[in-house]
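Lecture 7 notes: from sequence to structure.

We start with a single chain of 203 residues. Read the sequence below before looking at the structure.
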Amino acid sequence: METTPIQMADQPEAERCDAVRNRALLLDAAAALVAERGADAVTMDAVAAKAGVGKGTVFRRFGSRSGLMQALLDHTEQELQHAFMYGPPPLGPGAEPIDRLVAFGRARIALVDLSGDTLRAVEDSPELRFGSAPRQVSLTHVAMLLRAAGTEGDIPLLAHSLLAPLEASLVMHQIRAMHMPIERIADAWEDLVRRVTESPAGH
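Now the structure, written as tokens:
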């Protein structure tokens, strides 16, 4: 009799822990499929088989393939987002805006080098490429730094323009097809940022 309330109280917490583990398992399976076979391999059936669960479990967690890809993007970008919002400078708060912007681009390029296939898979999804939550967070962050640096011009459009060279599909093409070193791509990003922020628009 005394153990019943304890078991009932523990059950929701156990269910939450199981849900977190299952979600991570499914996202790891999806990322592995992208790395092994490419973006087209990321289907609900394939992820379920890879993770060793029923397809219904994948649908319950993510709703659709689009929801799965969105979650995969969030999962991949979490560390970068945490670093530029809360981490140490120059990527995080405490450094000059231009230095933070340069560090953001360098960190983003490094992320593409590490997880480019996953990021490109999401970019290939039309409904997620420009409207995903992580992209909106990045846009907001870049626009905030541009304003803090006193940059002139159309800030929202400048933010979009600065993010374009950081897209996974382009960076991966530069690395794999054009054989450009990561350092060269990152240095070009820094050069672009300093030109945009140091020269008044229209002059």
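The chain is about 75% helix and 0% strand. Keep this in mind for problem set 3.
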